[in-house]
Amino acid sequence: MKSSRNAALRDSPIRTVDLESGKPLVRDALSGLNRELAAAKQQRCTILKVIHGYGSSGVGGDIRIAIQKRLRELQQQDQIRACIFGEDWSRSDSRTWELLKTRPELKRDADLGRANRGITMVLL
User: Fold this and answer.
1) Disulfide: which of 16, 22, 93, 97 matches 88 by Cβ 3.0-4.6 Å?
2) DSSP labels for 49-111?
3) 38-55: pLDDT as tens digits
4) Which domains does the chain possess?
């Protein structure tokens, strides 16, 4: 059973990483992001779903703000192709729709259309 579960994870079109688990410090979450991006690129993963949480106050936490800022910087430096914030991860968003047309299997993602501010999709 374990090998079939590993095969399902390996065959998933999206690699998911949880940077909020354990309530890390911002610097530790950013280090985790760097490690996960490097690993994803090495494994030739093309889409990474980053779970960074939204913050316990309900107005956006420090980890979310720092992760999204860093991803914007990486996009400007052409180190990642794009990032789509969870609130935009919807068929009505033009960037998401273009991605879904080329990768229809992503339509099965549980967060699609849920306006989940606790995630960001990263295109490598």
Assistant:
1) 93
2) EEE----TTSS--HHHHHHHHHHHHHHHTTSSSEEEEGGG-STTSHHHHHHHHH-GGGGG-TT
3) 999 999 999 999 999 987
4) 13-123 (3.30.1370.110)
